[in-house]
Amino acid sequence: MGTGPLKRIDPLVRLLLVAIALASVLPVGERWSGAAQAVSNSAVFLLFLLNGLRLPRAEVIRGIGNWRFLLPLVLWCFGAMALAGWGLSLAVGHWLLPLVALGFLYLGTLPSTVQSATAYCSLAGGNVAHSVVAAALLNILGVVITAPLFSLLAGSEAAAFDLGGLEKVAAILLLPFLIGQVAQSRFGHLVREHRNLATWMDRISIAIPVYVAFSGAVREGLWSLVGPADWAVLIGAVLLLLTFAFGGAWLLGGLVGLERGDRIALLYSAAQKSIAMGAPLASVLFGPATAGLVLLPVLVYHLLQLVLSAPIAARLNPR
Hints:
- The chain is mainly alpha-helical.
- Helices cover about 80% and strands about 0% of the residues.
- Helix 3 (about 35-55) packs across helix 15 (about 275-285) and helix 11 (about 195-220) crosses helix 15.
- It is globular and about 50 Å long.
- Mean pLDDT is about 80; it is low at about 1-5.
């Protein structure tokens, strides 16, 4: 009976909580930070290689043609949400550490989740096919859009993004994805045949950068720098952004005249944000200490979006 509530928690969430707890009590030492970052980069490379092997090219090509659905989705995800994150980062800058406040802008520029957006779309009775393609395309775009968009809105002093940063993103995120797409016809069946193993490899590849990032933040005094009042402001701001994300995405679907199934698909693809992209990209863009602080809003948003998505799905699907 005692393990019931724990089993209902998403496995990725459990793994992320373990990574944060482990980093809090047993962080990577300064001496080993370089090696830990190399392991983290390798895990990110593997994650995007698996994504390339998993995502059928035919689905991407088929989904690209539905611009009535995709155009408002892309504009909401990388336009409205990025601006909302930017505005919140300025608003909470008076109460939170600058790097934590900057994390709201970083959160706003991230693409959607893939697995959970699709799962909740299915539970709500939405168009699952459109949800799969939409979330996949947003993540492909996120590889090339998120970092420069974040740097543009943050300003070069706060988040410089130069040719070196672009090369790191291309080498660790884009290159393995393209390799996976090219090798899909030969090796893609391995991912499909060993789905559970591939899923756990995904989760571990996300948890490792989180552990490394939070280790750096803990070494810099994370838990003494962020007190109860800071957490209250952080959670309140995340709830405000969630309200804007879900409410605005639902209204947008109605304004552009989408059918109910497509509107539900747009809701989850547009409002959810991806820790699967956020944690690896943060480990590439920022130093270990910086990444842990910037990721705080992303982690809180990820946990709360899962809590919010289930009752919304139940309300949208009377069955």
